[in-house]
């Protein structure tokens, strides 16, 4: 798999100064680019949908998104007329509340950054707040099952993990419909949180969501985003720090089939000293007009001395007709950092790997499955929930079998 390189910071470099801008094209299947300006937006973050212009597709944050397939989420024509079945399985000691939008915990982790996220904030009836008490260590995950039954729905969920607590959170999306939602994760000082979001929608579903994580002092947060289903999925995982010593790990995997549009737009804002972040997203694509978009933005503010950050995106294109847009962005406002860098690579299936396996008596179809499974295995094994890991491996196998 060839790795795009066009400046000292693209690829595996780690730097202590702002990178130079530029772009590179890898054949006809992918575009990798970078910018010294992270998160160029047409409007500043706001909870008011009126503060965002209706996008036309030429804006930086919308240029990859097929707006017509958003079913009216972007222009205000979508109305809440659908049904979303929700089931929350919470271990003992965890509280689950339904609250009004004036609850002080709503929006504390972050503000909507585009019109769809603001529309979701303005349209939900009541928010759900899940609280893990201080110093509580959960032996079982908090599981949220969301199953769409058609129509358009909006939602807002807050996970409030108090100081020195430890929790695993799993949100599982299935079914059909049009869904716009915001998720806030408040990670208290010294807490440890793993947040898993699985998008296993039916092929006709549309899903947009902004994930906001606010990481406390000396706390650790792991985000795992897994996207398989849906006609269009557009997710915004975002991290900020409430104090020094915080650590964030953002992992993701996606398998994009014919006609699907899967878009992941990440932002890590280092706004506190001596914090760490590590981003690793991997995707595989197959089929005509399969389109994956990965935007990885890291902003190191002047106050964030001692930052250590790295982001990487890898894409494996299995068939002709698929396209990847991979855009790592890195902006550094202080030279007093431990390290910063990013990498982006997209390539076709490695024929040499296939030949190596086939030379040892493994049939071509099985060899192909082994290579793709190995490509994803590193991320799957870090989820930490056995039944989810097994399900994802089985899903990858099913995707590959369907293409044979």
TrEMBL record:
Domain named SUF system FeS cluster assembly SufBD core: residues: 148-375
Range of residues in the leader sequence: none
Feature: compositional bias, Polar residues: 1-10
One Pfam family hit: SUFBD_core
SUPFAM superfamilies reported for this sequence: Stabilizer of iron transporter SufD
Stretch list, region Disordered: 1-24
Family the entry assigns: Belongs to the iron-sulfur cluster assembly SufBD family.
Protein's name in the database: Fe-S cluster assembly protein SufD
């Amino acid at each position: 798999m060839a790795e795009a390189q066009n400046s000292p910071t693209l690829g595996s470099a780690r730097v202590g100064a702002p990178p130079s801008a530029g772009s590179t094209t890898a054949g006809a299947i992918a575009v990798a680019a970078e910018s010294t300006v992270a998160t160029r937006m047409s409007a500043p973050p706001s909870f008011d949908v009126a503060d965002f212009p209706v996008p036309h597709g030429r804006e930086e944050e919308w240029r990859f998104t097929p707006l017509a397939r958003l079913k009216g989420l972007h222009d205000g024509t979508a109305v809440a007329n659908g049904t979303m079945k929700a089931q929350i399985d919470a271990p003992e000691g965890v509280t689950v509340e339904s609250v009004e939008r004036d609850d002080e915990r709503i929006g504390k982790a972050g503000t909507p950054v585009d019109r769809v996220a603001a529309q979701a904030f303005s349209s939900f009836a009541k928010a759900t707040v899940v609280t893990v008490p201080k110093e509580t260590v959960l032996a079982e995950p908090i599981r949220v099952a969301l199953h769409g039954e058609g129509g358009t729905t909006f939602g807002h969920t807050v996970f409030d993990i108090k100081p020195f607590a430890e929790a695993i959170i799993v949100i599982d999306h299935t079914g059909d419909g049009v869904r716009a939602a915001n998720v806030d994760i408040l990670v208290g000082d010294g807490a440890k949180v793993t947040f898993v979001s699985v998008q296993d929608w039916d092929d006709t579903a549309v899903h947009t969501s902004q994930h906001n994580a606010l990481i406390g002092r000396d706390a650790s947060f792991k985000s795992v985003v897994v996207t398989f289903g849906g006609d269009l999925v557009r997710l915004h995982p975002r991290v900020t720090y409430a104090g020094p010593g915080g650590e964030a790990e953002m992992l993701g995997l996606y398998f994009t089939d014919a006609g699907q549009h899967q878009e992941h737009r990440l932002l890590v804002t280092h706004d506190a000293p001596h914090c760490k972040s590590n981003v690793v997203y991997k995707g595989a694509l197959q089929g005509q007009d399969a389109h994956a978009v990965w935007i990885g933005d890291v902003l190191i503010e002047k106050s964030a001395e001692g930052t250590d950050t790295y982001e990487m995106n890898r894409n494996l294109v299995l068939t002709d007709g698929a396209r990847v847009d991979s855009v790592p962005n890195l902006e550094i406002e202080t030279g007093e950092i431990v390290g910063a860098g990013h990498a982006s690579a997209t390539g076709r299936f490695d024929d040499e790997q296939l030949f190596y396996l086939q030379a040892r008596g493994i049939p071509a179809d099985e060899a192909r499955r082994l290579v793709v499974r190995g490509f994803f295995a590193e991320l799957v094994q870090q989820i930490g929930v056995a039944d989810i890991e097994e399900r994802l491996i089985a899903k990858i196998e099913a995707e590959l079998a369907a293409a044979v």
